[in-house]
Amino acid sequence: MTGTPHHPIAIVGGGLGGLTAAAVLHTNGIELTVFEREAGRDARRQGGVLDIHHDTGQAGGLSGIT
């Protein structure tokens, strides 16, 4: 992605999707800022389960997922 001018990017939300996007963009040399509402990682209980199994997970009910 070198040689192409990019404007700085704002990512709103430091969750799984926001941080994944930030990592990919940063790896490709694109300037960005992540904005997160929580004061810090200890501001509330963190953690959860992301189950992407076809038959039992969150993706199980989405059409087009194989």
Automatic annotation (TrEMBL):
Any single Pfam family the record assigns to this protein: NAD_binding_8
Q: Please indicate if the UniProt record lists Oxidoreductase as a keyword.
A: yes
Keywords assigned by UniProt, alphabetized: FAD, Flavoprotein, Monooxygenase, Oxidoreductase
Chain intervals with Basic and acidic residues compositional bias: 46-56
Does the keyword Glycoprotein feature in the UniProt annotation? no
Q: Which domain of life is it from?
A: Bacteria
Annotated stretches, region: Disordered:
46-66
**Protein's recorded name:** 2-polyprenyl-6-methoxyphenol hydroxylase-like FAD-dependent oxidoreductase
